[in-house]
Amino acid sequence: AKEESYEKKKLYDKKIEQDIYEINQFDSRLSDNEKDSLSNEFNDNKKTDDVQEKEKIEKELVAEKHWSLKGEAYGYNRPKNSILNLNFEIPKLNTFNNNNTLENKNVGDMENTDDDDDDDEKEYASEDGHNKNNNTNSYKKKEKKMNTLNNEIEIVVKQRIQNMLFDDVEKKTIEDIELEEFNKNDEINFDNLNFSKSKISLVDEYTQKYQDEIMNSQSKNKENNLQKMEIMNLFKKIMHACDSLSNDYFIPKPILLNNKNNKMATLNIEDSVPMILSDKNKKTAEEIFNPQHMKQQNELTKDEKKAIRKSKKMKKKKKILNQFKQTGSSINQLVKRNTEIINKNKKNKDQKINYKKYGVLSKRSHTKY
Q1: What are 46-78's pLDDT values in tens digits?
Q2: Within-domain flag for 208
Q3: Looking at the domain assignment, is residue 104 inside a domain?
Q4: Range of the domain at 3
């Protein structure tokens, strides 16, 4: 009974797994189709957006730039009162600290300043749209105030331009400052001047001044020097650590050449030494064959020429005999060959002699004519 119930459970589980697998396949097919459609739509929209953005950027690049971006612009090169609509930086000298600071100056019609924005936020937060008419009235009043202020500024600026009063800051040199300080007291007090000769020499006076300056400066610079020493010591430690990291590497021990290792496996073999040596092995190559002067054909004598010719003939005979032996031909053939060669040589000799005597190769030809 237990085995039957176990088999039934197995069959039931298999059916459930098959159903789930079929459902997943159906869902995957649908999801793939939907994804493809969505991806195509997204790609089309993206392409259109990219094309539109490119067209906008191209138009901006091709179009003329604003006059404020073209460098130095004169009044006749820009529209009237156009500089009042710009926000630009004016360098202003700070009298307390001699540092050049830049302050943003908003010139022209300003719809909302920082203070106005704060006030507007408070009003909108408190009323929440119930008192819209009051807000509009207050906003109009502020606009009127700003317009009147701007008009007054324009009048002042135009009048100064007509009168050539620009209030430009003139640069001061060190010499001018020294002259001003010196000329503050126009009257000279002769009582303070010492016309008597000093008992100390100039060298002693300069040394005293130098010592006073050093003694006064030591107390001021003592703390700075201590801090510098601490910084230098810390920097030296850091550099030492960096050098140790970069320069430390493995160095093997040197090999001792004279030290013999007796633990190595060795073989003792006796070589067979010859008891008797010939004289040829003892002699050098020059002693066996001395290099001589090789004579040319013009330098040879008659006897030497005959010997060379004889040696050539002997070599040729040996070569011919070896050829006949290899082919297996008889001696009669060899004799015939030799007789033919001898007769041929005789004819050639006779022709040469006749040519020298009569100017003709043969006697018969001479007798006919």
Answers
A1: 888 888 999 999 988 888 888 888 887 888 888
A2: yes
A3: no
A4: 1-63
CA distance 60 to 53: 11
Cβ-based neighbours of 206, under 8 Å, separated by 6 or more: none
In a domain, 20, yes or no: yes
| Cα–Cα distance, 207 to 202 (Å, whole number) | 9
Q: What is the DSSP string of 223-251?
A: HHHHHHHHHHHHHHHHHHHHHHHHH----
Distant-in-sequence, close-in-space partners of 58: CB < 8 Å, separation ≥ 6: none
Q: What is the CA radius of gyration of the chain?
A: 62
Q: What angle do CA 159, 163, 164 make, to 5 degrees?
A: 115
Mention every residue, 6+ apart, whose C-beta is less than 8 A from residue 94.
100, 101
Domain assignment present for residue 41? The answer is: yes
Contact 107, 88 (CB under 8 A): yes
pLDDT at 105 over 50: no
- DSSP codes joined into one string, 2-34: HHHHHHHHHHHHHHHHHHHHHHHHHHHHHHHHH
Q: How many domains does the chain have?
A: 4
